[in-house]
Amino acid sequence: MLRALAVDDERPSLEELLYLLNADPRIGSAEGAGDATEALRRINRALESGPDGPDAIDVVFLDIQMPGLDGLDLARLLSGFARPPLVVFVTAHEDFAVQAFDLKAVDYVLKPVRRERLAEAVRRAAAQRGATPPEPAPRIPVHEPDPDHIAVELGGVTRFVAVDDITHVEAQGDYARLHTDRGSHLVRIPLSTLEERWRSRGFVRIHRRHLVALRHIGELRLDAGTVSVLIGSEELQVSRRHARELRDLLMRRTTG
Q1: 17-45: per-residue pLDDT in tens?
Q2: Which residue range forms the structural domain that includes residue 229?
Q3: How many structural domains compose the chain?
Q4: CATH number at residue 35
Q5: Are 7 and 35 a contacting pair, CB within 8 Å?
Q6: Distances (CA, A) of 237 to 4, 69, 176, 227
């Protein structure tokens, strides 16, 4: 079973996270730390005691925004250790997902934490530690009402966004950020999956990080050999390998 350390400077959030972790049968023990500095001391002590020592830690459930040393700082420090614990970020902020996955985080869980979402993160950590056989992680949300909508989470509530309202999609690690005129939503679906799913709906890849809806392209710009598109007020670069296909698609759309 996993030995976990939860780190959060907000006491109610830390207590709730510890409660949920201790209720999971894959967690053998879960302790809390009120800041990253305290967590670092505990992790150092755990590493000194060895993987089978009484202070060993398998996975750290880590808040990001904390005073002093923050969660990303701590994860960067841990990445330099010879045998660091796994890291799962648990945060109220969507904007750090790319940095989190660059640091090889196991998962990125948004607050308020739902029991089933945290259980998924525990499954992934357990699979990496060999505590359980690897299971395919279900994407979140796990269902959609019809092909014209996609389910997103906002404040712990599942809502449905019309695909036709999505102007473009941005890759963020294992996640994708859906952009609409009214805001953006983070979903745990790879960009390649959305590209395949929505190709027939007029979405096209323009860059390794961007998928755009042709109907929402306002301008195609050429400047000193570089190609970009204007979607609303946002200008997105088109990679050289995708430029010709995009021009052809826009031309057929104009003349068709």
Answers
A1: 999 999 999 999 999 999 999 999 999 99
A2: 161-255
A3: 2
A4: 3.40.50.2300
A5: yes
A6: 42, 35, 18, 6
